[in-house]
Amino acid sequence: MEKFQQMFLRQQKYIFYLLSLYTLGWGFTEYKTLFLSLILGTVVSLFMLWSLVRKIEKFGRAVAHGKKVRSIGTFSRLAAAALAAAIAIQYPQYFSIVPVVLGLMTSYIVIIIDFLLQKFQKNGYHV
After folding, report:
1. How far apart are CA 13 and CA 64, in angstroms?
2. Are 107 and 46 in contact (CB under 8 A)?
3. Are 114 and 7 in contact (CB under 8 A)?
4. Any idea what the Cα angle at residue 86 is, between residues 81 and 92, rounded to 5°?
5. How far from 19 is each of 30, 84, 121, CA to CA, in Å?
6. pLDDT digit string, tens, across residues 53-106
7. What is the pTM of this model?
8. Using CA of residue 48, residue 82, residue 20, residue 114, what is the dihedral sign?
9. Residue ranges covered by each domain of the chain
10. Rounded Cα–Cα distance for residues 122 and 3 (Å)
């Protein structure tokens, strides 16, 4: 599980870097709606990633102790994504739905990129 936790912390760091870039974009460019929408989607994406990691760790402990687990929280993550979309639709003067959806996909993109980076480093390539 320690390797799993290291992977999450690494991915969390990458997402925080992206959030800082989005914040700079929001503060210093004229594309306020775009960057605010990306921030909203990415923050919800980070929450969903954190929730998934927490539920998987709980699931792993339960399996190790021979206990049953009801679910890994898919409904709560879907509800968080729906909430982000509802906020974007409710406040179109501040948010745009397309960048919010792109922000919601951020954690999955970060997971894929992190996997590829780790795979290349494991095989001796330095990126």
Report:
1. 29
2. yes
3. yes
4. 125
5. 17, 16, 25
6. 998 888 888 888 888 877 778 899 999 999 999 999 999 999 999 999 999 999
7. 0.89
8. positive
9. 2-122
10. 14
